[in-house]
Amino acid sequence: MRILAAMSGGVDSAVATARAVEAGHEVVGVHLALSRAGGTLRTGSRGCCTIEDAMDARRAADLLGIPFYVWDFSERFRDDVIEDFISEYKAGRTPNPCLRCNEKIKFAALLERAIELGFDAVCTGHYATLVNGEGGLELHRASDAAKDQSYVLGVLNADQLAHTYFPLGATPSKALVRAEAEARGLSVAQKPDSHDICFIPDGDTRGWLAEKVGAEQGEIVDRTGAVVGTHEGAHAFTVGQRRGLKLGIPADDGKPRFVLEVRPVSNTVVVGPKEALAIAEISGERFSWAGPAPTESEFACHVQIRAHAEPVPAVASVTETGVRVIPEAPLDGVAPGQSAVIYVGTRVLGQFTIDHTVSAVPAGV
């Protein structure tokens, strides 16, 4: 096959590319420039897609003896990921930019260009596996549960899966990938994994949002509507947050209070007891299926609401307006805007963006 290898400059994509070459595929490496800030440099394990990363990717491609290019996707990244991130926070939702990047950049914009240029598939260093099932190609969890990245790939559809190549999915551990990189002479063998939001490399999401969205003082209220404090901008708060509330009026029982809801229209933050974070039902209208769609309108499954959260047994229902999931045990601290990924066994069935939640503890209880 003709393979376009997305080389981030990290150890995973370098080893994935090496395996594609070793398997006999015709491989071309490409690094995506996602920022117009030409002087951007990596700081330890913070950030990605920087000048340093591009140079590391080029060195790996040179060692493997494959052509290498840098493609400027910064405008698309700005429009589809950064602006989406800002608009979601403005609407009081908590988005996942990594998932959106996979959906809009790596497996949409990049894959579209790859197919136009005659490539058969895009290769990445994600930890996930593809399985030929009875109804078609399926996306499954990786062998290494600690590194499994199937959650952030839940947005991929059947057509995208058909042009995707994940060489690392069956590797038992990240340690083996690093050892392989060392043995192959790849300079990134011990390079730290990137974390945090790549376009906020200093990790100060609140400060970054204040600059982009603006800060306006508003009220913090309890579940009855009583004002218990003020804030400098609702965008700085997320559901489940406890620290930084600076409440002027303590709870009657003296227990800590947590953010239960963010209301951007009124610039209000709602707080309450930890028990009120328990969510008995989630639903959303924006959904997609990773491969064959479910054949039943209601079925047993597991739902995962964060990249590293434990999957929870649940019952999912596909309605005329979207997807609804009722977990066996309440979910903790769910925020609108998060992605809920639905699993059946190890298979990723699909995902939806959470628009609505139902508390397991009604107001006044």
TrEMBL record:
Domain tRNA-specific 2-thiouridylase MnmA-like central residues, every copy: 208-272
CDD domains: MnmA_TRMU-like (cd01998)
Keywords: ATP-binding, Cytoplasm, Disulfide bond, Nucleotide-binding, RNA-binding, Transferase, tRNA processing, tRNA-binding
Pfam families: tRNA_Me_trans, tRNA_Me_trans_C, tRNA_Me_trans_M
InterPro entries in UniProt: MnmA-like (IPR004506), MnmA-like_C (IPR046885), MnmA-like_central (IPR046884), MnmA-like_central_sf (IPR023382), Rossmann-like_a/b/a_fold (IPR014729)
Enzyme class: transferase
Site entry (Interaction with tRNA), positions: 126, 338
Compartments it resides in: Cytoplasm
Residues the record marks as active site: 101 (nucleophile), 198 (cysteine persulfide intermediate)
Domain tRNA-specific 2-thiouridylase MnmA-like C-terminal: residue ranges: 282-350
EC numbers on record: 2.8.1.13
Superkingdom, taxonomy of origin: Bacteria
Residue numbers binding ATP: 6-13, 32, 125
Reactions performed catalytically: S-sulfanyl-L-cysteinyl-[protein] + uridine(34) in tRNA + AH2 + ATP = 2-thiouridine(34) in tRNA + L-cysteinyl-[protein] + A + AMP + diphosphate + H(+)
Main location as per UniProt: cytoplasm
GO MF terms, alphabetically ordered: ATP binding; tRNA binding; tRNA-uridine 2-sulfurtransferase activity
Biological function: Catalyzes the 2-thiolation of uridine at the wobble position (U34) of tRNA, leading to the formation of s(2)U34.
Assigned protein family: Belongs to the MnmA/TRMU family.
Record NCBIfam families: PRK00143.1, trmU
Protein name: tRNA-specific 2-thiouridylase MnmA
Organism annotation: Microbacterium keratanolyticum
Lineage: Bacteria, Bacillati, Actinomycetota, Actinomycetes, Micrococcales
Gene: mnmA
